[in-house]
Amino acid sequence: MAANRRSVEKEVGQLLQMSMPGHDDWCEIMGATELKDSDRKRFNQAFGYFTAGCHDRAYRGFARLAANGCCVSQFFLGLMYLKGTGVLQDYRRAHWWLNVASSQGHHKARTQLEKLTRKMSPNQVAEAQKLAQAWVGKHCRRH
């Protein structure tokens, strides 16, 4: 069942600490301005799925873009795992994605990462950091 769009936008808005006006180009609002046109379209589509409650499709879209270095998509994967939105809540995976996005200079990812790190044990943080390092090592070699 699709979530109420306004409630999803409100939840995302609260999490991002910003208002969520109706908009067709979420890249501008979310700061994904570095994306080329085809990836902008994919991001907007993934975010549309996210706000419509089609989280499995949003996840697939964000994951594809994240693998190509889109820090905003990496941030949203982190948020999905942090909140358990469309995926099982998993702080290790949330930390991993927020860490990767933060390492690219995504400031909201850094803020969420700092909050999340305080909730995790040192062993959980270490494991999440290893996952992030392995992912970066695998994906950054391609670029």
Structure write-up:
The chain is an all-alpha fold and 143 residues long. It has one domain. It contains eight helices and no strands. The longest helix has 19 residues, at 122-140. The chain starts with a helix and ends with a helix.
Quick recap:
This protein is mainly α and 143 residues long.
Q: What would you call the shape?
A: globular
Mean pLDDT over all positions: 79
| Strand and helix order | HHHHHHHH
Count of domain modules? 1
Question: Which descriptors apply to this entry?
Answer:
143 residues; 8 helices; mainly alpha; 0% strand; 73% helix
Layout of helices and strands:
Blueprint: H1 5-16, H2 26-30, H3 37-52, H4 55-67, H5 71-83, H6 91-103, H7 107-119, H8 122-140
Helix pairs in contact: 3-4, 4-5, 5-6, 5-7, 6-7, 6-8
